[in-house]
Model the fold of this input.
Amino acid sequence: MSQRIVILGGGPAGYEAALVAEELGAAVTIVADEGLGGSSVLWDCVPSKALIVASEAMDWVRTADELGVHIEGLDGVDRTVVDFRKVGNGVLELGANQSRDIERRVLAGRVDLVRGRGRISGPHEVTATRDDGTEVVLPADYVLIATGSSARVLPFFEPDGVRVLVSQQAYGLPEVPEHLIVVGSGATGAEFAHAFRRFGAEVTLVSSRDLILPTQDPDAAAVIENVFERRGMRILRNSRAVSCERRGDGEVVVGLKGGGEVVGSHVLFTVGQ
Done:
């Protein structure tokens, strides 16, 4: 009899484990509450890189005239309009397409997929609650927990998806922010700050370190930091956000340790998982 394996989570760890286990002869079931590929494919790595590529179009417009390419009827970049709702939907659709490709690959074998959330309900069983509310009990010789993580939310802010954001919510903005404050200067924060600055937003990047991208090579991080500043980005080094407040309909204020503050139209928190 084949070993019965239930995997909670359909991200890279979950679906890759399912493919290997199926190849070795196990009967595998994945329980996942979002598309296969997880956050990496649906919200993080794939969409964020696509967002950067989309933002490069602004550079093409800015430099076209220098290269001898004249866009008829367009007198300079000031007349370029970014339909950010379309941009956001487009980059998310790329992630969704990749997720569907992964699902087809997984289901081509003997892997079953239950859409919903699962819990270990006994020594050798998992109870999965499907998206429609019904439950199914899955016998399991082994259970692999591969549920991943979610964006870290600090006690002093509550994402509302409108002006106070975490990365997953940034794609749903109806327009490019007038002034985006990005709190957190790791890879995710740097990517979003870079893309939105290219789209034309004023961007302030709040970094708790003296150099952005603290886990990367310092020389490479210094070069990227220099490029950001030459492009007009404001970087606040050795600054730690300690509060966040919405004032009226159009202002967000981020308080800094030591008494300073940054005022913008939107704030994006990228402070880890």
In short: Residues 247 and 253 are 7 Å apart (CA to CA). The first helix runs from residue 12 to 23.
